[in-house]
């Protein structure tokens, strides 16, 4: 992305500021801090990939941005206005921001035809126009042509890729400004994934759609995103343009995620243990218990090992500049480190 790219100067369409989402602990356990201080901006026409392991908080963050989970503290704004969680205001917001789920089989009612599935959003929002023409247009934009051929089909009569296109058509029918796609190709065959990613890019080009793509797959982020935000244990630990983050990762966690891609040079980094419990977030850098840089002695040689274990790192800002929340990266890789 070049420095004269309009995405760098545009005001955010959707913005999260110091977002915290806490869930009560079970059987007297401490509260789980699923999202523990996140700033994130998505600009008009921008595709942002939110990446991380399962359990890192990325789906909870996405649900909050959709208005499905109210934050414990912090704010979500859309078009510069705070998100209103009152019923009528939230219904209007959900028309402008649509969700595309991971499993099209689970998100489509097996008893509803394709036409009914796509028209459902129009009926919920009291659409007064030509329903059939609008459904046909959405199906056509999603790559199901001629659309009338699919009207009376049921989900079980479609391929996995066709079902995902129906889900996308159901989102497009309301003409949203932003879609949140949660693992949009995870359940699809490799041969179909590229088609769905190409469709999302085409929709951005044709309609000016913005998108937040939630994924554990950095290869997918490389193919579709303008910007990437890497999340670990409730916080974004590295962010920047996809080219900068994925060709020159600064955070050890990002380096480990990239190392397991088939085309990555060298041996994969095997992280020890599971991500820590969000109800027991460790002091210092929240990644330090699994960090290969700390375990190898590199952090000690750089003079930051004690800081890694004891000194917390600030929340990264939500803008487009490259940032990393890592004591070691701050002194060894780039002055942009926190």
From TrEMBL:
InterPro entries: AAA+_ATPase, ABC_transp_ATP-bind, ABC_transporter-like_ATP-bd, ABC_transporter-like_CS, Oligopep_ABC_C, P-loop_NTPase. Keywords: ATP-binding, Nucleotide-binding, Transport. GO terms for molecular function: ATP binding. The keyword Cytoplasm does not apply. Residues 14-258 form the ABC transporter domain. Pfam families: ABC_tran, oligo_HPY. Belongs to the ABC transporter superfamily. PANTHER family: D,D-DIPEPTIDE TRANSPORT ATP-BINDING PROTEIN DDPF-RELATED, TRANSPORT ATP-BINDING PROTEIN. This is ABC transporter ATP-binding protein. It comes from Streptomyces durmitorensis.
